[in-house]
Amino acid sequence: MAVFMQSFLSGILIGGVYALIGIGLTLIFGVMRIINFGHGDILMVGMYLTYVLFTWLHIDPFVSVLITFPLMFLFGGFLQKVFINRVLHAVAQNQILLTIGLGLVMSNTAMLIFTSDYKILTTSYSSSTLQVGGGVTVSTPLLISFAITAAVTAALYWFLLKTDTGQAIRATAQDREAAQLMGINVKRMSILAFGLGSALAGTAGALISPTYYIFPQVGGGFTLKAFVITVLGGMGSVVGATLGGILIGITESLSAVYISSGWKDVVVFVLFLLVLLFRPSGLMGKSRT
Amino acid sequence: MLRVEKLNFAYGDLKVLWDVDLEVNEGEIVTVVGANGAGKSTTLKNISGLVKPASGSLSFQGRDLTRMQPHQVVEAGLVQVPEGRRIFPEMTVMENLRMGSYVKATRADRQKNIDWVFELFPRLRERERQLGGTMSGGEQQMLAIARGLMANPKVLLLDEPSLGLSPLLVKNIFDIIIGINRQGVTILLVEQNVYQSLRVSHRAYVMETGRVVLTGKGDELLNNDHVKKAFLGM
Prior knowledge:
The complex is a heterodimer of chains A (289) and B (234).
Chain A: H1 2-32, H2 39-57, H3 65-82, H4 92-114, E1 129-133, E2 136-139, H5 140-162, H6 164-174, H7 176-181, H8 186-208, H9 219-233, H10 238-258, H11 264-278
Antiparallel strand pairs in A: 1-2
Helix pairs in contact in A: 1-5, 1-6, 1-8, 1-9, 1-10, 2-3, 2-4, 2-8, 2-9, 3-8, 5-6, 5-8, 6-8, 9-10, 10-11
Chain B: E1 2-11, E2 14-24, E3 29-34, H1 40-48, E4 55-60, E5 63-64, H2 70-76, E6 78-81, H3 93-100, H4 104-107, H5 110-120, H6 122-126, H7 137-149, E7 155-159, H8 167-182, E8 186-191, H9 194-200, E9 203-208, E10 211-217, H10 218-222, H11 225-232
């Protein structure tokens, strides 16, 4: 039982970070109907940013979120304004090519600057654990990162539900043309959405940097994971991505313990296929007409 | 107040508007009637800035509309209630109304306007917390009009507000349109319900295949032989 609780708990903790990545992708998709295949690479930029802040300025990775979030927001807004806005009405293939291309530029730039060596960010608490009781322990960095994730997610929900700008982002996602007729500047909403999505991915990058290897190609796996989470939760649904992220985290963690860590991705994809089989529009998705 | 001159528009190679002239004066209810595909909605979309004309001029209170983005047109006081209602389905009635007063200059009047539209549509007050997408067609139409009114429109552009509603509700909607007009809102109405809309309007334009073919006072057109034959089956 302790083993189960142990892996269940760490599944939730890592799932929180997955949720953050998935929410970013789903927010971008909801507003623009574009799947950002460079999402994982944006996370990678967030990781390197955290690494640089830590090694050069000695800023703790968790504290550096305060810098990473706004910087990645500006970076995402820049990408939207300069690149993505130009293909909003283009065919889907071109949009996909553009986001993949942007991702490649990011990972190769990282390779030029940092080489493809694995970097490790070691903090005083990187391998420390905390007793929760009942023989269950959790890794301290995971616990802190989950707390920050929860705070960021709560703030995001508040923003989307309660503020005029947040509601305008949702309105744009639900009916872009009607939103324009409300006086909403949808181009500005797109910049905001891509900025927020990037800030969330960058924040996730900062949060996992004490526990993951940092290297230029780290993004690819996360893009795939974010895509699975988004589809699983229902494309464009923020609540769905939150649930999807946690669900993937728990599934990975349990299957690593009870089957084999080599098989955890297989289990995740089987679960993914099963959900799609029985709920093709995802957990919280609405079928589109 | 609102002036459309020699408006031409094409979807790609398909030309749909030919030299459309149209004028709306302050305080009027002006109707554009015509069959499906006559170019009525396209004319409205040009005015709202959702599409840009191939040629011709669009001006509102002396300002050139062709240079404005859709959101700037709303800020100028031209507010369109789109065809098919287009309410935000996963937002509550209240949230939909709040989006209606998204434009900064109108936010100060938000509470006042909410009280006003709840008075016009008591049904909406009962449904305040319901999701827009779960309401009936008639309720959604009320919400769409109410949402448009939240933006303090100088001119309200209504695209087929009676579409898909029961006869009783249609009469109700037209009564409300008259009521809104009496409270000082100028109205440009696009309708296929020729009889009802000509009855309530001060002036009207008849469009056929992308051209304005007739214009005159509402009651004059009701007695016009061409209108009778083409639209009223008389």
